[in-house]
Amino acid sequence: MGNQDKGLVPYKGRPLIEHVLDIIRPQVQEIVISANRNLDQYQQYTSKLVKDTESENRGPLAGVHSGLQKIDAPYTLLVACDQPMLPVDLVEKLYAPFITNPELQVSCAKVLGSIQPLNAIIKTELSKELDIFIGRDEYSVKRWYQTLNTYQVDFSTQAEHFANVNETSQLI
């Protein structure tokens, strides 16, 4: 995207983040946005805005780390800003495994055999485990999930909803 702030890139006439929020907002109680630039623009979408605590951008897990410090709910939904067509039942399906398995720590989407680590519900209490993981200079979301009790929810029948907008040619 030419070093543009992906969440603010116009898609179908509006910033990508607005499409994601339209789908997610009815499914959650509160929105927390992790951003490292253009904070004034992101403030229009939520009163809870976080910036990475790390001195340099270390990727999505650093944002998750910062966000968990601001969340009071027992569960946290993770989504990326570049998936404007997420399913309207994302939270319902990701949360269902927690009902039958109280020891579960993470429930993440799997699409056509591939894990979607930024489409997940995690227990907010995992903040301490994440502190330890990041303390080892580890920033891979997938590797972190491998250290936790993780369940993968198959969304293969809804694969089109997980398409990422990664190229300017995908912007309509």
Task: Please tell me about this protein's structure.
Helices cover 28% and strands 20% of the residues. It is α/β, with parallel strands linked by helices. It has helices spanning 16-24, 39-42, 60-68, 90-100, 127-135, 141-146; strands at 10-11, 14-15, 32-34, 48-50, 75-78, 106-111, 114-123, 150-154. It has one domain (6-170): Spore Coat Polysaccharide Biosynthesis Protein SpsA, Chain A, CATH 3.90.550. A four-stranded mixed beta sheet has the order 5-7-6-8, sandwiched between helices. The chain is globular. It has six helices and eight strands. Helix 3 packs across helix 5.
Concise structural overview:
The chain is an alpha/beta fold. It has a single domain, classed as Spore Coat Polysaccharide Biosynthesis Protein SpsA, Chain A (Alpha-Beta Complex).
Question: What is the level 1 CATH name?
Answer: Alpha Beta
Based on CA atoms alone, the radius of gyration comes out at 15 Å
Shape: globular
Arrangement of strands in the largest sheet: 5-7-6-8
Strand element count: 8
CATH architecture annotation name: Alpha-Beta Complex
List segments where confidence is low: pLDDT < 50 over at least 5 consecutive residues.
none
Give the CA-CA distance, first to last residue.
Answer: 14 Å
Proportion of beta-strand residues? 15-25%
Secondary-structure-based class equals: alpha/beta
One letter per element, helices H and strands E, the order comes to EEHEHEHEHEEHHE
CATH topology: Spore Coat Polysaccharide Biosynthesis Protein SpsA, Chain A
Largest sheet: 4 strands, mixed
CATH homology superfamily name: Spore Coat Polysaccharide Biosynthesis Protein SpsA, Chain A
Helix content: 25-40%
- Give me the oligomer status: single chain
- How many structural domains does the protein architecture include? 1
What's the helix count?
A: 6
